[in-house]
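Researcher: Hi, I'm a grad student and pretty new to this. My advisor asked me to get structures for two proteins we've been looking at. I'm not sure of the right format, so I'll just paste the first sequence and hope you can take it from there.
Model: That works fine. Here's the first sequence with its structure tokens right after it:
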Amino acid sequence: MADPYRAHPFHAGGGMRKFGNGEKAKAGSIWTMLSRVFKHARVQWRLLILAIMCIIAISLLEFAIPQLTRYTIDVLIPEKRYNQLVGLGVGLMGAALLLGALNYISTSTTASLGQRVIYDLRNDLYRHINRLDLSFFDRNRTGDLMSRVTSDVGVLQQLISSTMIQLVTDLFTFSAITIYMLFLDWRLTVLLLATFPVMIMTTRLFGKRIRRSFRTVQESVAEVSDHLQNTLSGIRLIKSFATESLESDRFADRSKRNMEANIRVTKLRAMYEPIIDLLNYLGLAIVLVFGAWLTMKGYMSVGTVVAVIAYLRLLQTPIRRFSRLINTIQQSAAAYERISEIMNTEPEIVDAPDAISLRKVRGQVEFRNVSFQYAGSGDQAVLEHFDLSLEAGKVTALVGSSGSGKTTIAHLIARFYEPQGGEITLDGHPLRQVAITSLRERLGIVSQDIVLFNGSVKENISYGKQDATDEELMVAARAANAHDFIEAFPDGYETAIGERGVKLSGGQKQRISIARVILKNPELIILDEATASLDTESEHLIQEALAKLLRGRTCLVIAHRLSTIQQADSIHVLERGTIVESGTHEQLLRLNGRYRELYELQFPQAEV
């Protein structure tokens, strides 16, 4: 089966998509944008051909109508051909009806084409974002990414729906009429075309400024979207601190920047369009004055002058339309630049050419001389020359102060990040040589930061195994001590849990996340502070569920609460990315070191 990612018009060749043969999209080039968008539209070639044929037919009809006017003035009226007047009227009405039908087909076809292309582009952008590394999301705001997928792609829809095809057709119409007018009277045509270089220079001058302004508009929209996403997702915090007025002022400040950016665009457009209209009227004045002089001298008939004026209107229509469309084109160019920035971003963590897929693993994990630091953290390394062994089928626990590197170790095992030095192996295979999907299919993660989607309980539990039967789902829920409270809901497993599980308690959310991992049935488990924020009763139920989950599997437990790891096969104490103590719970207590300090802080009355 062909890889849909590689076949997309935004990309060429294999691997991650690029804007054509490894070339970076030339930000600022309208023609580059139009050519890339045309490659998208080319996939819908039937609709594209139909739309172009309709618009060309419309141009030919509009080209023919002035000839009827010329024939009427120069032939029918002087020769008093009354018998042809009815045919003339029928012909004009027929042309009008045909123009209406062609305009309907053209409009509906281009709209359908635009929607299909936008559908492909938005899906392509979303898939590409999903394939990027966590480091990319560390650097970019959620609201800004949302704005690029929704607002920026939506702006391009205006360009694709009509503008792009209309520009091609206008170029055809402009060329055809110019050639014909040169045939009618080259002197008049040359005088008329003398105004066009001024139009082109004016368009270039204003176009650059308008696009820069639209870039600011799109960025301000992203700021508004980012603020909205943050405040709506944190509405409980806002209300608990009674900071509604503060957030409203911040939102108003971002909205004001968006308003001011839009006003700047409007002022530029308001200045540009009258200049183009003035130049168009200058062309009309040239035709009227010089054409009248030629007619008075007997070099041109009245019908020819009228036809030339009609063709002048057709010739100026593309120019006038382009002056109106420059707003859309430059806005689309600004949006295209922001989309291309994402599409040109390559993931740092990819499968090696000879990557292997693991069908089953024992779970033996080895860290050998590993060094790692997060991007943008300066010289501050989280791990340096770090060694660690996770025995297959055993429970290994990590404890230590915040910032000691515990969660980083979990992220490196899952290949969310890549170490800068050293090597991590799974069952003897270097992780760099293991297919990422294969690795993560064998891995289950239960963390303190529980992610549940706005859907039903059933949809959330079966997220890692979409084809699970109801029986399998209930078995997983029972093992996670979640079945009873789920059945107590009015709709049972079909109960909607709200955004991020807002309708559930902390313990219920955690047990659903454990049921999700149990259903996935991975061989390697990571528990990252899985019970840190729970009450005693919930912790007891979850400990029972985890005991069932961990049976016979390799497990890495990260914990602040030492009560959760006392039965671990081995415990490692981390400080500043270094293991300072290792052993079982009893062994570490007897050492009278850092572990005992942590234990006595949590259990000051305990006798050891």
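Researcher: Oh nice, that was easy. Here's the second one.
Model: And its structure:
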Amino acid sequence: MKNGTTPKWLEQYEPGVAAHLEYPKLTLGQVLHETSRKYPDHTAFIYLDQKWTYREFNALVSKMANVLIELGLNPGDTAGIYLPNSPQFLIAYYGILRSGGIAVPINPMLSGEDLAFIIKDAQLKVIVAPVEAVQLMEQAKTPKLKIISTALTGQLDPASNPAAPGALSLEELLTNAADTDPQVPIDHTAIANLQYTGGTTGRSKGAVLTHFNLLANAIQFREWFKNVYTDGDGRFLGVIPFFHIYGLTTTINSPILTGSSIILHSRFDINEIMQSINKYKPNLFMGVPAMYAAIAMRDNQGYDLSSIRACVSGSSPLPPAVQKRFEEVTGGKLVEGYGLSECSPVVTVTPIYGTIKPGSIGVPISDTQVKIVDPQTGEEITTSGEIGELLVKGPQVMQGYWNNPEETALVLTEDGWLHTGDLVYMDDDGYIYIADRLKDMIIMGGEKIYPRELEDFFYTHPAVKEVAVTGIPHPLRGEVPKAFVVLKEGAAVTEKELRQYCLDHLSKFKVPKIQIIDALPRNAVGKVLRRLLREEGL
């Protein structure tokens, strides 16, 4: 928005949701102390039917901090977490922060060069991993890296995880550690987290996020739910991966800020999730479209899902049919949001009880400035409906990329605006719509083609379950669009018939090549791996 004008999206805020917030000068470890003081006997998390209170959790975090200090982790050193959702992840993460270290969550499905790169690039001193992955850690480790192994059994009993060759037992270390806060002086502006981007379009980069960045985004996110739940009453279904910043902020930091319970699941198993909702009555659930679709399209077999009050869908577009059916099944609200690792991650969310516009990613949350600029000229676009690159500014925006000033300079301006690389447009009410990724835009003989536009069109065909469109090189036109289509079960449409459907409804130059495949390649949080599709297209 132009300086001096009131952002039009503020009119969409629900009653009581503030446009501007206060952010205490606290570290995340101090926030946990405060929560455990207010809610000592509230359940902090549940895993495999075992429960831990905030008093117990806080003591375990102090134990972990003391363990790391004893192992030589100094303030500003980095420590990796190579774990699925589990009590050990929570204890390790907050223990690293309380010790003054920098946490580096790592996708536990990474291996080989991908894993070795992060270990080396982040300069890890310690890594916490499942006992089954110790050999993998040994292969990828650097000479001074210490490996702490853990058994993900739901128990923190040393008997469940004796020390493995080449590693220390987390359970043994915690048992023998003091549970008093080591009182390491940590500034609220210190680095808390290196969040490595997915690396699907090149080598991954570590987004530098401070305690202030992460706490600010947790406070912003909590404010959005002001009319949904009260502090101490939240019960979050914790199945979105915690190694991803989406899960880290929405389903760890925000619940801990409010004294809420986290119902942990190390994976999305539809039967386990249905049983968990029925038993533990979560009222908040942050996930991805595939999770909501699985619940919406499944016979609930008598499970009571009515505890669900509000959910946010992220990482990929939410089909309106899934949104509608999920709300019918649970009685709760399901809205779409948008974020990125560089923004801790939340930038926009649809108002929970406000106007829902299918296809929109909502409006900017509190204290979040956005503007849309022409990718070629950098001039701000103020016309509704005109596509440009989204820029973001706010307390949640990263400090830069770890040891990568060149890449940082490409995305962060001197006055704090972050180039997201996403092509968007805004309507007259301030709602934002993703048109495409700037790097995914296809330029065919000078014509701009947006894959998102073509994907939305394919979903109008009754036989199409999923689709992803990407550009593939062409000797004369530079590149041409190609659609990879997954059909609904039992559908018998052919590629030729789909092409004719396109010819009947689209401008001819937009009609893509079409290939029917069994499934789209995705990462752990549901994003389509377009790089793999481009390679397949070649």
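Researcher: Is there anything I should tell my advisor about the second?
Model: You could mention this: The first helix runs from residue 28 to 38.
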